[in-house]
Structure formats: structure tokens, C-alpha cells
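TODO from last week: model Lipoprotein signal peptidase.
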Amino acid sequence: MLFAAVALVAYAADQVSKVVATRTLDGRPDVQVVGELLQLHLTFNPGAAFSTGTGITPVITVIAILATLGVLWYVRRVGSALWAVALGVLLAGVAGNLTDRLLREPGPFRGHVVDFLMLPNWPVFNIADVCINVAAVLIIVQAFRGVRIDGTREGQPDDEADADGEAAGTDDPADRPAPAEERAE
């Protein structure tokens, strides 16, 4: 449920912000939000990050479809809240830009992504891009913490962990499995 809620809210924020940006920024000069630090500047990007790959938009679209399917495949194994959030924002980001590539001009699989957030010395981006970067940070945090997608920790058997990756065993001898010779009786 957490995964779905995060994905839906972030995806909606991305799509609504793009609609507002295209309706209010088209043909206007840059709008300063926080002085020169953050400005609104409408662009339509046929490529990937930093406008790379502008000539291979259909390939980027297929990669985005595969990434979306990959996230949906892996979410079945989620066993921790942080992994659910990470995959939720990742899905929202990938699906947000994929929606543009499928539905915007110049046509399906060639659509240009709406970008409108501009920082100094940085390419113009959107909320979907922010989601993808937040997901990357959360995934790296989980990797450094040694928490697997199912919530278990590295070096810990899967059946001895709870959903947050913490040990669930106790020191009570009654909770330990019986030795093999006792089970045979």
C-alpha cells in the first residue's frame, strides 16, 4: 500500500506540474522563484538526462518501458518501508517521463519530455527527474545499510528478520529448532 500511495502521489504531482507549466510558461520569459537559484523555464526534451540521446528517443522510450516493468516485478518482494518508498518514487519518475514520451508531440515513442525547473549551471528538469534521483539515493542508502529488498539484512538468513531488516530471533532456547537427532524420535 505504501508503494502504491507514494507512486500515485508523486506521479500525479509530476503530471499536474507539467500541465501547469505548459499552460502558464509557454512563450513567457523565465520566472524567478528563488532569485537566480531556482527559475521556471519551459523546455521540451527529446533526449535523456542532460539532453543526451536526442536522436534515439524511441530507444529511450523502450528502456523506460522495461524499467517500469522491472520496478513492478521487484515490488512484489518488498519487505521494508524504505524500499517501498524508493520503488514508489522510482516508478513515479520513470512513468512520469514515459507518459510524456508516449503521449506528447511529436508522437508516440518520440514524445518530448516537459522540463521546467532550472538551477544555475544545471540542465532544466522536472518532478519526475527529482523522483528518480530521490529513488537512487534511497536505494544507495539501503545498499550501504545492507538491507535487501525483502527487508532482510546482508549475512542474515531470510527467516530471521522482520520487515525492517532487524533480527527477530530471541535468546529463548524454546524458540530454537531441535537438533536433528531429537527430531528423528
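Done. The chain has one domain: 2-156.
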